[in-house]
Request: fold
Amino acid sequence: MNGEELTEQETALYDRQIRVWGVDAQRRLSKSHIFVSGLKGTAVEFCKNIVLAGVGSLTLNDDNPVTAEALAANFLIPFDENMGGGGSLAELCCDSLKDFNPMVHVSVEKGDLSSFDVDFFEKFDVVVINCCSLASKKSVNEKCRKLSKRVAFYSVDCRDSCGEIFVDLQKYCYAKKKIDETVECQLQYPSFEEAIAIPWRSLPKRMSKLYFAMRVVERFEDVEKRKPGETSIADMANVLKLRNELCLAHSLNESQIPDSLLERLVVSTKEFPPVSAVLGGILGQEVIKAISGKGDPLKNFFFFDAVDGKGVIEDISTSTP
Amino acid sequence: MASGEQLSAIKDAKVLMVGAGGIGCELLKTLALSGFQDIHIIDMDTIEVSNLNRQFLFRQSHVGQSKAKVAREAVLRFRPQISITPYHANVKDPDFNVDFFKQFNVILNGLDNLDARRHVNRLCLAAGVPLVESGTTGFLGQVTVHIKGQTECYECQPKPAPKTYPVCTITSTPSKFVHCIVWAKDLLFAKLFGDKNQDNDLNVRSNDTASSSDNSEDVFECKKDEDMEQYANRIYNHVFGHNIESALSNEETWKNRNKPRPIYVKDVLTDEPLQQQNGNLETDNNVSTLSAMSYLGLKNPQDIWSLKENSRVFFAALKLFFSKRHKEIGNLSFDKDDHMAVEFVTAAANIRAASFGIPLHSLFEAKGIAGNIVHAVATTNAIIAGLIVIEAIKVLQNDAKNCRMTYCLEHPARKMLLMPVEPFEPNKSCYVCSETPLLLEVNTKRAKLRDVVEKVVTSKLGMNLPLISHGLNLLYEVGDDLEEDMVANYESNLEKVLSELPYAITGGTVITVEDLQQELVCSINIKHREEFDEEKEPDGMVLHGWTQAPAVEKKDAAATNGASTSTTSNSVPNNLEDDDDLTILESGIETISSGKKRKLSDVSNPEEKRAKKVPEQIDDDGDVVVML
Reply:
């Protein structure tokens, strides 16, 4: 929609959420374009949330065929013994999402994520990648950063009952409401590559252990040329070895990355649906905040572990402690 | 993914979900994906358009259908092999008794009102089934776990009461827009379109004979020789002009207040004769699309209308009611989904606001206040549903010591957006889960049994089918299977003063109040007291041992004045059950209680432990205030 005012239909449909974030935010949402690559359970949760919220368009990218495992984690695809009749994950999810909210344009972009060039991402305001390799996180993030307009970049991962969200809003200005005044705030985000390059010893004390554990597993998959989630109990010895090497290099006590936590991430790589729901919800709220310019955006990592129940924000953006 | 133990606990579990609304849709989906096989779901609601932005199992084509049934069908499409049993019914129906609850391993609440929550809490306690309770409003939410004997029950902590306003604030000295809304909705709208027999304080001061031509006549009745035009003008001049004028005559009131300005039709609509507006009033006969706004060419509900525009909406809506919906007049009560009622209330509230120098509001805002509309987004519901399932699995594994209550915050506190807290122990003086007697101070020579039933037993104690006895003698009982003479006997008891009942209730008497369905029994010690403060103790009785949190600004303010308080609050449960959008408070996150400190869970580091204090109180807007 191009008009400045919301239609009667939109006002009726979005009534309850307009009461939360206002008409301006709703209008901005309806003009925003979102790209999502990798349609695991967590991304599917996110897609549901932003289609309901009423974004302008959503472009889905995942050429993988529907497997029994994908079906098990996906509430968008109707159960089908023929596994979706040969359609890709993105195609089948697209059909369902269109149905959720007829006012959102949902489409599929075929191709491998790595094949999209910088110009491709210019069409979007927000890029979300789910369950991607270290290399593609870095490269997609860099491509977004090369554009003159700001494209917000998010990556989200869920392994076992643990989850991580990374946010890069580059240079982000927003109006922050204080008790009786509104102040202009500015945040400077590092890229994924910059963030993870920060030496561990210079990070604040009591950094979420999950941050380090995710880096170990991510690095392991990278050096072993594995796809994300392609790990098993057999890898534990090598993962622990890598952990020790990294801890040594970073002067971090190994106890900061407990064996038990690594084992959870390495052994059961499937997403735990309640955790996907939590991550998809937090990510949805963050994307809505970034588009609408309302509310303090998360900077720049979010961790959730169902075992302790904490949902923690960590700011990993500067090497000075 | 879940461990083997978790998986078998999930597979073998039989769970009951209460509510298939905002949280319920998310919860049912997450339960199904997590591997739950046997899910029962109760919801009495049908689907509405304003649900569709977050209750994602529903589509436009489902509007009007049962939420529980449509939710089941939607989930079976991706999980056909599991069993989902829907009940399109009120959880308070007698069919859902203690035995019904006993068949489940855990109960999961996704409710929107205090009344149903309390009812489910009692059934869970009676059946000995753990309860996972939840609520959201805007970006805020919470999940709590209640296990009998191990954690507090849902009612161990006082719940915030709806904000009420003194009668005189509403009738004479409004200072906030909400006061004008309450006046427009509960007094003016009720007077013009509602039940004529209901008490109404709209005209408390109109017994002066000076301006009223015939004192015995109700000013709000249309006179025989009067046409619609004259009638509407007279009402307008009376409520916005004359009534303000006569209020001004009481100088004492305005010593420390800004004086209001009387507004008459001639002051506002000078340049255009009203007759000009009679255009398509005659053409549209479809009641559901009748709109004063669209008739006047006002399109955007976000716009704030001028006094003149509000006055025109007032006249157009009034005339449309009388010309097109005449049959409903006398039976109407305000409904936020009745567009013309919202238009009328918005316009009337704004004209009154203009009179008192209060800023005017848009129809959209006025509707939110008048309809007490809760703020709701899909994301918070999704997060909360995920957390419910995580807690439910711990409960099913008998891992109560690891259960947490979790707050979903809008702004991080100690870096946390999701903050787990150790559950409280049961409150030893909770009248619901312990057997502590209550104390009722009442004038036993003046109060009737009916007063006790309405003001204490049903409203405060939340009993559904109460039974009141004095020793072994029954004084009152509600039920379907009662004999006629018993019903008549109880009816006559209701009208009797306490000390004149067949088994007299006087100071020192102990009465027993129980609800057989909820299996809740309370003893109440009676203490006679002569006098009560009308403003501070409007019930004319005071119940001790039952605590209510300080009132929170509730946009609706169902109870606005002494006389109609009891009738209004008694009708509340029905209203609340109708729609999952109604209450701000009950669905919210207010159970973070003041005064007590909660322990943050799982603090491994002792120095950290000392530094930590926990969310303690909420402010008036229902926001969590975290004290660090």
Observations:
- The longest helix of chain A spans residues 8-30.
- The beta strands of chain A are 33-37, 57-61, 105-108, 126-130, 152-159, 162-168, 171-177, 182-188, 301-305, 310-314.
- The CA atoms of residues 196 and 215 of chain A lie 8 Å apart.
- Chain A has a mean pLDDT of 92.
